[in-house]
Amino acid sequence: MEQGHYNNLMEELANEAPELFKNYTRTSKALFDEIVERVTPHIKKQTTWWRDPLEPGLRVAITLRFLATGDSYMTLQYSFRVPHNTISGIVPETCRAIVAEYGSEELRTPQTQAEWLQVAAGFWDKWKFPNCIGAIDGKHIRIKNPPGGGSYYYNYKKFYSILLVGICDSQYRFLYVDVGAIGSESDAGVFAHTQLKELVEHSKAHIPPAGPLPGDTDGKKCDYFFVGDDAFALRHYMMKPYPLRSLTVDERIYNYRLSRL
Question: What is the pLDDT of residues 156-167, one digit of tens each?
């Protein structure tokens, strides 16, 4: 372990190349130290007669590197000089600790009209797309097919997965996440069963009432909405692209701008 990345490479990067440290862990050194401090009570182990426990900083480093690269435990064991079967316990435990410490703080769906309006302002300021309160999409996370899984986890991309469907703001920060659906599900199918959709459809999500578009002088009002790809159904709260046939110039421009979101 003394010859691994944690005690050598990471220390060198922190002192001599902070930008490379951030590339390696996806965090600054200051944030890395904060994470270690906050999760230590959750992951610190007691010293025993048999061995000294791995220090919390090493556990966090292994976990962040796994999340940053998707490397296998077998690969990480050579980088950090920690057996792969030990890493298989470290990563899930540390992930749970990070969620426990940061979950409600960093992943928070807007709870008031003012908070939704702040999200909409971000999309207008950065992307010049009005009344948008979130961009939604799905991501297939590759897994080994569980025993008895059959074809439930086999997705249209021809591999086994679980599905993450997330909604982000204009700064790529998650506002809402649903993860764990079987890979054969569609993005829209997963969203259809979320608590957020239920709240939106029953007007309980505190989304602001329809408002005028910027520069519009005819008095018409437009609902606030999420934007998604063609997999989602068109609703007053969900905008999607026009079908790709016989498009007018304005429709092509709309599709381009929506795709950027």
Answer: 999 999 999 999
Which residues are paired to 182 by β-bridges?
162
Interatomic CA distance for residues 15 and 194, integer angstroms: 45
Distance CA 162, CA 179 (A): 7
* DSSP letter (8 states) at residue 55: P
* Two structure tokens written together for 99: 């969620």
**Can you tell me which residue has the tokens 């590759």?**
142
In tens, the pLDDT along 98-148 reads 999 998 888 889 999 999 999 999 999 999 999 999 999 999 999 999 999
Compute the radius of gyration of the chain from its Cα atoms. 22
103 Cβ neighbours under 8 A, 6+ residues apart? none
Strand 225-227: give its sheet, edge to edge.
174-182, 161-168, 132-142, 225-227, 238-239
Residue type, 46: Q
SS3 breakdown of the chain: % helix, strand, coil, rounded to 5? 45, 15, 40
Place of tokens 């591999």: 159
Is 135 in contact with 258 (CB distance < 8 Å)?
A: no
If you average pLDDT over every residue of the chain, what do you get? 92
| Cα dihedral across residues 123, 129, 134, 135: positive or negative | negative
Mean pLDDT (whole number) for 82-92: 95
Q: Which stretch of DSSP H or E encloses residue 174?
A: strand 174-182
What is the rounded CA–CA span in Å between residue 153 and residue 21? Answer: 36
Alpha carbon distance 187, 78 (integer Å): 37
pTM to 2 decimal places: 0.78
